[in-house]
Amino acid sequence: MKTRAALIVVFIAAQAQAFTPTRPIEVVVHTGPGGGSDLLARAAVLMIEKEKLAPVRMQVVNKTGGGSTVAAAYLFEKKGDPHTIGFFTGVWLTSPITTAEAKVTLRDLTPVARLVLEPALIAVKADAPYKTLGDFVATAKKSPGQLKQSGGSVTSRDNVVRQLLQKNSGARWAFISFPGGGERIAALLGGHVNMMVIEPAEAGEHIRAGNMRVLAQVSEKRLAAFPNVPTLKEAGFDVPAVPQVRGVVAPPGIPAENVAYWEELFRKLTRTASWRKFLEDNQFEDGYQDATDLAKFYDEFTGQMRTILQEAGIKIVR
Question: What are phi and psi of 272, to 5 degrees?
């Protein structure tokens, strides 16, 4: 006699078989080319094609503006469309907390899967005078507002880390917002800004090429690829290691069999050797959750980020 778990697996598989994409899939991201979400989405699309997990082509579409608000609103407008999905990050949860204009929350969309949890690095240009994060902060304290940090939206992890460090140290430096990761990196390497908070996947090639120096890690423990770089706490800054989460959502009002199809596709993807190598190469932590657990995670993460944002002195509107 089959166990309940086995019956659930059979039921999900049967649901997934009830839907098959019949036209290209639009994969929506909120960052421009070179941003963390853009890189993850494009890598996932390539792996899905390589593993032959989908019968149709998948096309990444960049919907930048207002942090995540433009992309979230675009997905919401695609209500009932089974051929559109989006890659979300924590900013899709924090923007509605801090921005009145962010009308669409992740709760208004359809959860599919959580994929990864991601640390971050604090980096400067390789020839910058700062050898440690303490050096950068000390300089910022001597010249308030003169140093600059490139980043995403004001609700992004980039700025939250900045706010926490400023509150902890009393230093002040400017935050320059750019729509895409490529532009943020170009601003740093071009000498237009002095520092950035960057994901390992975005920074990797520039660190290997000797263009960037990593001052600290936004993580609870040192990453294997950076054994000699201190965490924020080890660097002398007792602030939370702000989490980053990445996953997949779909428009509201899609059929249950559509949800089951995407859930099963991304479950299969996370079990491939290609995916495991991708996680290792990019210093990601496997954070897979199915749609049900992801919906529960929303509340947990939102509560955690609301506390961090309040601690950082950022105004809460919801």
Answer: -85, 155
Q: Examine residue 238 and state whether it is found in any structural domain, yes or no.
A: no
> What pTM was estimated for this model as a whole?
0.80
- Gap between the Cα atoms of 79 and 100, Å rounded: 22
Residue 29's domain comprises 4-118+244-311
35 and 99 inside one domain:
yes
Q: Do 142 and 90 belong to one domain?
A: no
Instruction: Please state the domain count of the chain.
Output: 2
In a domain, 226, yes or no: no
Q: Which of 153, 184, 218 is the last residue of a domain?
A: 218
Per-residue pLDDT tens for 276-309? 999 988 888 899 999 999 999 998 889 888 888 8
Q: How would you classify the pairing of strands 120-125 and 84-89?
A: unpaired
pLDDT digits (tens, 9 = 90+) for 193-239: 999 999 888 888 899 999 999 999 999 999 988 999 999 999 999 99
Residue 191 to residues 158, 180, 202, 213, 215, Cα–Cα distance (Å)? 18, 17, 18, 13, 17
Handedness of CA 164, 196, 276, 268 (dihedral sign): positive
Name the domain boundary from 200, 218, 236. Answer: 218
Please, how many CA atoms are within 13 Å of residue 75, restricted to the half-sphere of its CB?
Answer: 35
Query: Residue 155 belongs to a domain with what CATH number?
Result: 3.40.190.10
- The whole-angstrom separation of Cα 149 and Cα 157 is 12
Mean pLDDT of the chain: 91
